Amino acid sequence: MVKISKKSFHTGTVKKTITINASKDKIWRKISNIVDLPTWVIDVRKTIYQSKKKKDVGAIRKITFNDGSTIEEHVVAWKAGEYFTYIATEGLPLRAYVATISIKQKTKKSVQLTWQSYFNSKKMTQKQFIKFLAFMSSFYETSLENLKALLEK
């Protein structure tokens, strides 16, 4: 008997946290430049503004990956020096994608950075969605390690 994997909608989250030994200001300057992704996010070829606004709520970016795929993201929440939240509006196998990157002082010389996301998939199998979550988890982890290495130089 062949088991047919039913395609349906799935929800999930990914949360990665890293401690970076650099000033909060230095880290915020880096992450709040929302088109500076090619310097630390893996597989990003280029990122450009799609809006006149460069920071804060309403800023829009288009990310092009090494494989040619693109994602459009809109900043929907912003608290300078603490966090920003963005949504992807196109380019992912998802109906919803909301992510927040936040920083908080741990010690005088270190900051905890957290990148967390909520996902709601387009129709796919449970196995496909679990594979997608594992990919995103690895993507965040490797990107955060790149950011740490860059900022601790």
How are the elements arranged and paired?
Layout: E1 11-20, H1 24-32, E2 44-49, E3 60-65, E4 70-79, E5 83-90, E6 94-107, E7 110-121, H2 126-151
Give a description of the structure:
The radius of gyration is 16 Å and the shape is globular. 18% of the residues are buried. It is built from 2 helices and 7 strands, in the order βαββββββα. The model has no long low-confidence stretch (mean pLDDT 95). It is α+β, with helices and mostly antiparallel strands and 153 residues long. Strands 1-7-6-5-4-3-2 form a 7-stranded antiparallel β-sheet, covered by helices on one side. A hairpin with a 4-residue loop joins β3 (60-65) and β4 (70-79). The chain has a single domain (11-151), classed as START domain (Alpha-D-Glucose-1,6-Bisphosphate, Chain A, domain 4, 2-Layer Sandwich), CATH 3.30.530.
